[in-house]
Automatic annotation (TrEMBL):
Subunit (UniProt): UreD, UreF and UreG form a complex that acts as a GTP-hydrolysis-dependent molecular chaperone, activating the urease apoprotein by helping to assemble the nickel containing metallocenter of UreC. The UreE protein probably delivers the nickel.
Top-level taxon: Bacteria
Compartment annotation: Cytoplasm
Single GO molecular function: nickel cation binding
GO cellular component labels: cytoplasm
Keywords: Chaperone, Cytoplasm, Nickel insertion
Native source organism of the sequence: Actinoplanes philippinensis
InterPro entries according to UniProt: UreF, UreF_sf
UniProt record similarity statement: Belongs to the UreF family.
Name of the molecule in the record: Urease accessory protein UreF
Role according to the record: Required for maturation of urease via the functional incorporation of the urease nickel metallocenter.
Ion transport as UniProt keyword: no
Biological classification of the source: Bacteria, Bacillati, Actinomycetota, Actinomycetes, Micromonosporales
PANTHER family per the UniProt record, alphabetical: UREASE ACCESSORY PROTEIN F
Length: 214
């Protein structure tokens, strides 16, 4: 295990385009569902339990066996009913691969894989384990939206990071659950959904003015 490598992969400053995405938070703020740190807490916990678990499971599975990348990619498509979210995931996957290939010899897994599949492949190329890939995926589920919340709502960044610290044990728990399923058939991997995020993403894609791509 290399903690430094894991930190590098999970670093928000990695040039993978993550800063351009709010993880579905922008439309939820516009709808009045998230207004403050408490609301952000509920949003992040919900994302961890749904999309976070799915992303972590698929990242762990891709890390365990990059030869399954195409099959995993199809499985993620089936779990992503929103076309806007599919496009966002693939855009981030493409950018992540570009960044990763500058650092490690990443195997061919397709030109535009979903972000969790790309993350798992990068983790494998970097010598990380499925558990570590799952940690990076779960961590990214919270930190990207948290950073967006500071920009969108003007929240106190210290309070937001205190929230992230409180969520760290839940990230670890989700990652452990996800990694334990890394060898499961694709159809049996987690498939938790968040319909409000799917609906919000489709509305968000029609906005003429928005701060984030998704």
């Amino acid at each position: 295990m290399s903690l430094a490598t894991l930190l590098l992969l999970a670093d928000g400053r990695l040039p993978s385009g993550g800063h351009a995405h709010s993880g579905g938070l922008e439309p939820q703020i516009a709808a009045g569902r998230v207004r403050d740190v408490d609301g952000l807490d509920g949003f992040l916990r919900g994302r961890l339990a749904t999309g976070g678990l799915v992303s972590a499971a698929f990242a762990a599975a891709a890390c365990a066996d990059t030869g399954r990348a195409a099959e995993l990619d199809v499985g993620l498509d089936a779990r992503t009913p929103s076309p806007a979210l599919r496009r966002a995931s693939r855009a981030q996957g493409r950018a992540l691969l570009r960044a990763g290939r500058a650092m490690w010899p990443v195997p061919a897994i397709g030109r535009e894989p979903h972000q969790p599949v790309a993350l798992g492949a990068l983790a494998a190329a970097a010598g990380l384990t499925p558990v570590e890939a799952a940690v990076a995926a779960a961590h990214g589920t919270t930190t990207g939206s948290a950073s967006a919340a500071v920009r969108l709502l003007g929240l106190d960044p210290y309070a937001v990071h205190a929230l992230l610290a409180r969520l760290a044990p839940e990230c670890d728990r989700i990652a452990a659950v996800a990694a334990a399923r890394s060898g499961d058939p694709v159809d049996e991997l987690p498939a938790a959904g968040a319909p409000l995020l799917d609906i919000g993403a489709e509305h968000h894609a029609t906005w003429e003015v928005r701060l984030f791509a998704s």
